[in-house]
Structure formats: C-alpha cells, structure tokens
Amino acid sequence: MKAVILAGGFGTRISEESHLKPKPMVEIGDMPILWHIMKYYSSFGFKDFIICLGYKQYVIKEFFADYFLHTSDVTFDLATNEMKVLNKNGEDWKVTLVDTGLNTMTGGRVKRILDLIPDDDFFLTYGDGLSDVDINKLLEFHKANKKIATITTVSIGNMKGVIDINENNEIISFREKEEVDEAIINGGYMVLNKRIGDYIAGDSTPLEKEPFTKLANDNELMSFRHKGFWQCMDTQREMKMLNELWNSGKAPWKVW
C-alpha cells in the first residue's frame, strides 16, 4: 500500500529555512523531517512512497539521487571518476518523486498522482508533521468504516489560563484550561480511497476545503482520534522543539 506525502508547498511560515529548500527538507537532527516521516511509515511495513513535489523540487530529487552520499562512507577515485560506497546505509524503500506543479493546491496534487496508485486505498500525510499515531490501527479503523476518507484528528490545547466572558463583555472567571477548551484539528496521517478524485475539481482545489466539506455532507469522512504525540513544524520555535526531542533521545516518533 502506497504512502503519499505532500511536499510541494512554499513553507512561507518558516521562511527562514524554506527560502533555501522545501520545508520537508528542513532538518531534524541531521536528516530532513521528510526522512523522519518516511522512517516512521516504514517501521510499520509501508515502504512504497509517492512524494508530491513543487517548490524547489530539485532539492528533494537530489537528496534521494545522492542518498548514499548522505548516509554512507564513500571513496572517490578522482583519476577514474569512480565512487565506491564503503558501508551501504540505504533503505528498502521505493520512492516515486512526482512534479505536481509549483502552485498546485493539496487536492490538486493528490488528483495528479491517483493514476500511480494500484490499490483502492492509500495513505496521505503532510511533509511537515510528526506523530506517534498507530498506523496499523488507523488503517484497520478506515477499512472497518468503509468510508472514502479517514483523517487523524488531534487536539491543540490552550497553553495559558482561560478567561470566560459573558455577553456584556464582563469577565466572569479566570481558570485553568480544560479539555473542552481544546481545538480539534486535522493532523494529517490520512487514509483515502481513490474515489477522492471525484471530489477534487483540479489543481486549484485545496483538499481541506470543498472536498472535505462535501465528504462530510455525504457521510464519507471519518475521524481517527489520536491523543498521543503530534507536532507540526510551522515555526522556528517548533523546529527547535523537535530538534531538542530528537537530540534528547526521547523523540516519540522514533520507533525504529
């Protein structure tokens, strides 16, 4: 079963890094966050990837083309222009890199690669989010419900105390946050049926808007609630936090 990763956006919210490379290539430790996502899926046995490219796609293509250079010791014979790999630290992955357009929206990117998917269902996630969601349980949940789309939903809790205000703008309480104060959002790590293509008009369609709205109206959209670790990387602060987790040896997504 194929795992599709959206890696074509401009990453404007972390422009300090993404002006040089696509956001999925921003490093956690000494490897791109894209690699961490792929290692996570492969730890569950899913090793066939399609990566949807756009902005600075050549950076991602060059990374995989030179994968041994990034992960192995090599000897260069400059006289013969030969390279010998001394220790092959590769991965047993199949990686298909697809140019899905520079300005294509997320739905359009998905629609462009549907012909490359032989099965009815496929995984889909964003190239900037890490989690410890149980991929096998997610897939079981999707198959049991027999819907077109299942998205992993996560809670973003308030970090501060909560102020309750009445209709007269009077503060009636100042309290600690509670579970009801948390916002539930799409955390990626989705499973989709190829029938999703019927809900996507074209390149200008964000997956998260019209397609998901129509799926919800048709009772074809399920939520797989995940209460464990989840973190996107939109800011320098979040990048630093993920690096600190990795360097501490306690990264929740490191299950390999």
What distinguishing features does this structure have?
256 residues; alpha/beta; 8-stranded mixed β-sheet; two-stranded antiparallel sheet; 8 helices; globular
How does this model look, in words?
There is one protein chain. This protein has 256 residues and is α/β, with parallel strands linked by helices. It is 27% helix and 28% strand. The chain has eight helices and 16 strands. The strands form five sheets. Strands 1, 4, 7, 8, 10, 13, 14 and 15 form an eight-stranded mixed β-sheet that branches. The longest helix has 13 residues, at 236-248. The radius of gyration is 20 Å and the shape is globular. The relative contact order is 0.18. The mean pLDDT is 89.
Topology:
Blueprint: E1 2-7, H1 15-18, E2 27-28, E3 31-32, H2 33-43, E4 48-53, H3 57-65, H4 67-71, E5 74-77, E6 82-85, E7 94-99, H5 106-113, E8 121-126, E9 129-131, H6 135-145, E10 149-156, E11 162-165, E12 171-175, E13 183-186, E14 190-193, H7 210-217, E15 221-225, E16 230-232, H8 236-248
Parallel strand pairs: 1-4, 1-8, 4-7, 10-15
Antiparallel strand pairs: 2-3, 5-6, 8-14, 9-16, 10-13, 10-14, 11-12
